[in-house]
């Protein structure tokens, strides 16, 4: 049996949820909780306000969040809805401080929306990067000059030859590519 036939595509996501749940703090720090939930509650699918908040994330959190969101977008593309992903990952990506954990239960819909907004934002960034890469790829690099091919009858005359050849006769023909200037 091939690996693709027995590995559930959601298995890595389940492991990721477990890992994120065991972290002492969520990827989005607790001190940003109120601001991010507020953005999700008033947002109409516009992720611009959320983007400005994410700019203040610690670099490690930002990088891990980027990788997690790339994974979640792949999962959404192949097997789960964004809403279902938000319901599963919302509470582990964004948690209030330990003293206010009861607030999280009242704001589960906002958590789902935060994950959806984050996924949308990640897709927009990825698409913009892909367009930028495409524009860079449209310009072809310069074509290098073709090396000249000449028949060298006496290898000692070749610019880069430093050795001595023994057993070389005038009847032997060597085809050597040299860099003639």
Automatic annotation (TrEMBL):
CDD domains: RhoGAP
GO BP, one annotated term: signal transduction
Protein name in UniProt: Rho GTPase-activating 23 isoform X1
Biased composition (Acidic residues): 128-139
Record keywords: GTPase activation
InterPro entries in alphabetical order: Rho-type_GAP, Rho_GTPase_activation_prot, RhoGAP_dom
MF-aspect GO terms: GTPase activator activity
Domain of life: Eukaryota
One Pfam family recorded for the sequence: RhoGAP
